[in-house]
Amino acid sequence: MKPIQATALMFTLGAVACGHAPTPYSFTATQAANDIDVVVRTLQANGLKPAQIDRQLGTVTTLWFDTGYQFRESDEFHNLDYFTDIFLRYRVSIQHEGGKDTVVLDTDVQRCSPTDSYVTIAGVNGSCQPMKILFPTQQKQVEELGNKLRLALAGSEGGAARM
C-alpha cells in the first residue's frame, strides 16, 4: 500500500470512529397555541431557514446547509484523493398529548461532491449519499439548538422539561 493511501485510510477510519449515530434532542413543554411559530422564529434567529412547515402534522424542516465539514475520500482504482462536503438539515416535530407538547429535534446528514452540489428548497441536488453518523461538534450544535427551542417554548407558555 502506498504511503498516501495508508494515510488516507487511517484518516478516514479516524474520522468515522469519531462520528456517532445522531441523537435526537427531545423535551416536553406546556402546550402552546403558537408552538410552530415559536419553533420557526427560533430556527430563523439561529440562521436556519424553514423549507417545510406542516402545521397539521406539527413539523418544521429546515433547508439543507453546508456544515463546512469535508470528508477526504480515496479511489484506489483510479489513484485519486477527493473531498466530499457534509450537508445537514434539522427536523422538528411536535406531538400534542394531554396539554403537553413532546418536541423532538432530529437531523438528516449527507455527504456530497463539492463540484456539483447545490441547495434548493427541495433538497441538495448533486452527487450525494446519506450518512448515518454525526460528528461530536455537530451533535453539540443539535444539543445547543434543542436547548434554545426548549427555552423559547418554555417562555411562550410557561414550561419545558428535558426528556
List the topology elements.
Elements: H1 3-18, E1 25-30, H2 35-45, E2 50-54, E3 59-62, E4 65-75, E5 80-97, E6 100-112, E7 118-120, E8 123-125, E9 128-131, H3 136-157, E10 160-162
Antiparallel strand pairs: 1-6, 1-10, 2-3, 3-5, 4-5, 5-6, 6-9, 7-8
Helix pairs in contact: 2-3
Structure description:
The model is unreliable at about 1-15 (pLDDT under 50). The protein has helices at about 5-20, 35-45, 135-155, and strands at about 25-30, 50-55, 60, 65-75, 80-95, 100-110, 120, 125, 130, 160. It has 3 helices and 10 strands. It is an alpha+beta fold. Strand 4 (about 65-75) and strand 5 (about 80-95) form a beta hairpin. The chain is elongated. The chain has one domain (about 5-160): Alpha-D-Glucose-1,6-Bisphosphate, Chain A, domain 4. Strands 1, 2, 3, 4, 5, 6, 9 and 10 form an 8-stranded antiparallel β-sheet that branches. Strands 7-8 form a two-stranded antiparallel ribbon.
Number of H/I helices: 3
Low-confidence stretches: 1-17
Question: In total, how many domains does the architecture comprise?
Answer: 1
- What is the CA-CA span between the terminal residues? 49 Å
Shape: elongated
Please tell me how large the radius of gyration is. Answer: 19 Å
Secondary-structure element order, N to C: HEHEEEEEEEEHE
What fraction of the residues are assigned to beta strands by DSSP? 35-45%
* Main sheet: strands, sense, barrel: 8 strands, antiparallel
Oligomer status: single chain
